[in-house]
Specification:
disordered C terminus; 664 residues; 7-stranded antiparallel beta sheet; 27 helices; 19 strands; alpha+beta
C-alpha cells in the first residue's frame, strides 16, 4: 500500500526532479516508510511507501536492468529517515523496465513459484517484483492472474511506453491528465489528484459538469473528475501511453454470471463460507499484523471472526456516536461480539465537535467533494486503528455482491402489483401524493421500468434531476442520471440479469467505485493505514455470481445466503441483524443553532452565489428546521462548498495539516 505518481516527457533535469519531489511530498500520508524516485529520458516515477510486505527489500520504483530472466533488480531511493539507498541523489538505477505500484498482490507467492519454475530469478521477497516480472513474462495477461488490489504503471525504456492498470473493482485509485508543454503532450498520473495539481503544466479549472452530476449521485459519477481534464482510469481497465503522448485505454475484465437456481440454500452458504474464509486467509498475507474493523453489522463481524481463526490475537476497531452512547449502538454490539470471540477491541464515541472539526481535513483528503456522512466516521475508525496496526480488513462490497441494500427488494414489491396497467398505477400515485397518503413512491416505481428510476443508492437521498435544475444556475449538459448509467443497464440486460441483478450491476459500476471504495481508500490513507476488502476478491465474486436473486433478497430480508454463511462464524443475532448503514445524527445537528448558522453562512457566501440559486438553498434550510428532513441534500451542497473553498479559494491544506505529516 502506498502512493504513486509520475509523468511522461521528463528529463533528468533538476526542474523535473523538484516537480517529482513535490508530487511525492503532497501524498506523504500514503507512505511514511520511504520515498523513491526514478528519472530517465522520457519518464519520471515517484513512490511513497507504506511497508507491509518485504519490509527491507520492497522499495520502489523497482527496476529490472534487462528483460532477461537473470536480470538484476534494483529498488530506490530513500528510507523513512530520508537516507539514500541507491545513490546520493536518491534515484533508482536505470533499467529497461521500471514499476510504481499501489496495492497488494495476495497470491504473489504462488505466482513467484510459477515464474521461478520458468527460469525467472528474484532478488527480493516483494509482491512488486513478482508483478513486474509477471508483466515481462505474460504481458497484459498478468492481469488475469492477479488476486489483489492494484493501480500501477510500468515504464518500457526501449519503447518509451507506459503501461498502466487498475484492479477489477476499483479498490485503488488512479488519476491521469494530458498537459501541453514545450516538450509536447505529457501524461501526468497519480494516486491522488492533489499530486497532479503540483505539476506546473496543469492549470487548475473546475469541471462544472461534475457538479451537475454530483448533486444527483452525491459523488463524482463521470470519468472526468471535478478538475477539468483530470480523468479516472476506470476499474478493470488498463491503458498504454505511447511515445507520442497518445493514450490507448481498454477494458480487460467483465463480470459474468451463471446462476444456480436449483442449489439448496445450505449448499450456497457452504460455498460462500469457503470462499470468504479462503479470501480472508489471502488478505492476511503480510509481514506486519493485520487487524479488522468491527461494526454491529454482519459484514465486518463475519470477517473479524474469520480472521480470528487465522490469528486469535487480532485487534479490532469500532466507532460510534456520543449521541447513541448507552443505547444499543455500534460500540456496544462490537464489544459484545469481541468478548464472545475472545479478541481485542478498541473503540471510541465521536462527539459532534470532533465530527465537525475534521470536515475540512476529510474534504482535502478526498480530493473531490464527498457528501457521504459516513466518510467522516471512517476517518475516525481509521485513526484509532492506525495507532496499533498498519492494515485492517473491512467489509466493503458485500452489499453489492450479495444483495445487502433494502432497495434491492423493490422489484419483488413491484411484482405484487404487476397485473395493474402502468397508467393506472401512475394516476393512483398522483392522487395519493396530492392527498398526502403514504405509498405514492411505491406506486410510481411500480409503474416504471427499473432503468427509469434507479441509478444507484443515491436514489431518495440526493437531488432529483428536476431539483438539480432548480438549484443550479447553469447545467452544462443537462444529462439525467439515467442517461449516465444507461450503459451499465445495457450490459446488465445483455448478461441476462433480472431487475435486482441490474441494480446490483449498476451499483458495482458506480456506487461501489465512486463512493464506497473511494472513501475507504482516502480515509485509510489519511492515517497511513491499509484497508483490505476480502469480499472484493475475484474468487468470492465468482461464487456471488452463482447466487440467484431468491437467495439474496426476499420481501423481508436481505443478504439471505451471506447471512446463512456467516452463522458458521458468528452468533445468530449478529448474522440476522438488520442493516443500519452507519447512522450519523445529521438531521438533529442541522437543527442545532450552532451548525444551522454555520451552514446558513456557507449558503450565503460568494461561492454559493456563483453556482446556486441561493433562495433554493435557504428554502432547504428552513424546511429542515421546520421539521422536514432535508439533511442529506443540505450536506451535499455544504460539502461541495467546503471542498471548493479548500481547492479553489484558499488553495491550501486545512491549517492543522503540515507537509509530510503522515497522520494529518
Amino acid at each position: 500500500m502506498c502512493g504513486i505518481c509520475g509523468f511522461t516527457g521528463a528529463t533528468e533535469s533538476i526542474c523535473d526532479e523538484r516537480i517529482l519531489e513535490e508530487m511525492c511530498a503532497v501524498m506523504a500520508h500514503r507512505g511514511p516508510d520511504g520515498e523513491g524516485r526514478y528519472l530517465d529520458d522520457g519518464i519520471a516515477l515517484g513512490h511513497r511507501r507504506l511497508a507491509l510486505i518485504d519490509l527491507e527489500g520492497g522499495f520502489q520504483p523497482m527496476v529490472r536492468a534487462t528483460g532477461e530472466h537473470s536480470s538484476r533488480v534494483t529498488s530506490p531511493a530513500r528510507d523513512a529517515n530520508g537516507t539514500p539507498r541507491e545513490s546520493e541523489e536518491g534515484m533508482a538505477a536505470k533499467g529497461d523496465f521500471a514499476i510504481v505500484f499501489n496495492g497488494e498482490i495476495y497470491n504473489y507467492r504462488e505466482l513467484r513459484a510459477e515464474l521461478s519454475a520458468d527460469g525467472w530469478a528474484f532478488e527480493t521477497n516483494s509482491d512488486t517484483e513478482v508483478l513486474l516480472t509477471g508483466y515481462l513474462a505474460w504481458g497484459e495477461g498478468v492481469l488475469d492472474r492477479l488476486r489483489g488490489m492494484f493501480a500501477f504503471a510500468i515504464w518500457n525504456r526501449a519503447e518509451h511506453e507506459l503501461f498502466c492498470a487498475r484492479d477489477p473493482f476499483g479498490i485503488k485509485p488512479f488519476y491521469y491528465t494530458v498537459v501541453q508543454s514545450a516538450r509536447g503532450p505529457q501524461v501526468v498520473f497519480a494516486s491522488e489528484i492533489k499530486c497532479i495539481l503540483e505539476h506546473p503544466a496543469y492549470s487548475r479549472e473546475l469541471n462544472e459538469e461534475a457538479l451537475e452530476q454530483y448533486l444527483m449521485f452525491q459523488f463524482s459519477a463521470l470519468p472526468e473528475t471535478f478538475f477539468k481534464g483530470v480523468f479516472k482510469l476506470a476499474p478493470a481497465h488498463c491503458m498504454n501511453v505511447h511515445a507520442d503522448g497518445s493514450i490507448e485505454e481498454r477494458r480487460y475484465w467483465r463480470p459474468s454470471y451463471r446462476f444456480d437456481e436449483s442449489r439448496p440454500l445450505a449448499d450456497t452458504a457452504d460455498a460462500i463460507d469457503a470462499a470468504v474464509r479462503d479470501s480472508v486467509h489471502y488478505h492476511n498475507v503480510a509481514d506486519v499484523e493485520v487487524g479488522s474493523f468491527l461494526s454491529s453489522g454482519i459484514d465486518s463481524s463475519y470477517l473479524a471472526a474469520c480472521l480470528a481463526r487465522e490469528n486469535p490475537a487480532i485487534r479490532t476497531f469500532t466507532v460510534g456516536f456520543a449521541e447513541y452512547e448507552g443505547e444499543s449502538d455500534e460500540v456496544s454490539w462490537a464489544r459484545e461480539l469481541a468478548d464472545s470471540l475472545g479478541i481485542a477491541n478498541a473503540s471510541m464515541h465521536i462527539s459532534e465537535e470532533e465530527y465537525w472539526g475534521v470536515l475540512s481535513k476529510v474534504q482535502w483528503h478526498m480530493d473531490e467533494p464527498s457528501a457521504d456522512p459516513s466518510a467522516v466516521a471512517l476517518y475516525f475508525v481509521d485513526m484509532i486503528a492506525a495507532r496499533e496496526v498498519k492494515a485492517v480488513l473491512s467489509g466493503e462490497g458485500a452489499d453489492e455482491l450479495f444483495g445487502g441494500y433494502r432497495i434491492y427488494q423493490t422489484p419483488l414489491a413491484n411484482a405484487k402489483v404487476g397485473w395493474a396497467p402502468k397508467g393506472l398505477l401512475r394516476d393512483a400515485a398522483h392522487v395519493m401524493r396530492h392527498a398526502g397518503v403514504r405509498g405514492a413512491n411505491y406506486l410510481e416505481r411500480a409503474s416504471e421500468r427499473i432503468e427509469d428510476w434507479y441509478y444507484t443508492n443515491a436514489n431518495g437521498v440526493a437531488f432529483t434531476y428536476e431539483e438539480a435544475k432548480r438549484l443550479l444556475k447553469r447545467m452544462p449538459t443537462a444529462r439525467t442520471p439515467q442517461e449516465i448509467v444507461a450503459g451499465a443497464y445495457a450490459e446488465a440486460r445483455d448478461l441476462g440479469l433480472d431487475d435486482t441483478g441490474c441494480m446490483q450491476h449498476v451499483d458495482l459500476a458506480f456506487w461501489l467505485a465512486g463512493d464506497i471504495l473511494l472513501k475507504t481508500d482516502k480515509m485509510a490513507m489519511a492515517h497511513s493505514l491499509e484497508s483490505r476488502v476480502p469480499f472484493l476478491d475475484r474468487h468470492v465474486f465468482e461464487i456471488a455470481a452463482t447466487v440467484a436473486t431468491p437467495q439474496k433478497v426476499s420481501g423481508h430480508q436481505t443478504k439471505i445466503a451471506l447471512r446463512e454463511a456467516s452463522e458458521r462464524a458468528i452468533p445468530h443475532d449478529w448474522a440476522q441483524k438488520e442493516k443500519l448503514g452507519f447512522p450519523v445524527p445529521l438531521a438533529s445537528w442541522l437543527r442545532d443553532d450552532r451548525y444551522y448558522e454555520m451552514i446558513r453562512e456557507l449558503f450565503a457566501g460568494p461561492e454559493a452565489d456563483r453556482f446556486f440559486n441561493t433562495e433554493e438553498l435557504s428554502r432547504l434550510l428552513e424546511e429542515h428546521r421546520a421539521g422536514a428532513n432535508r439533511s442529506r441534500k443540505i450536506w451535499i451542497v455544504a460539502m461541495f462548498l467546503l471542498w471548493y473553498r479548500i481547492y479553489f479559494v484558499s488553495r491550501e491544506r486545512p491549517c492543522s495539516m503540515r507537509a509530510g505529516a503522515p497522520n494529518a
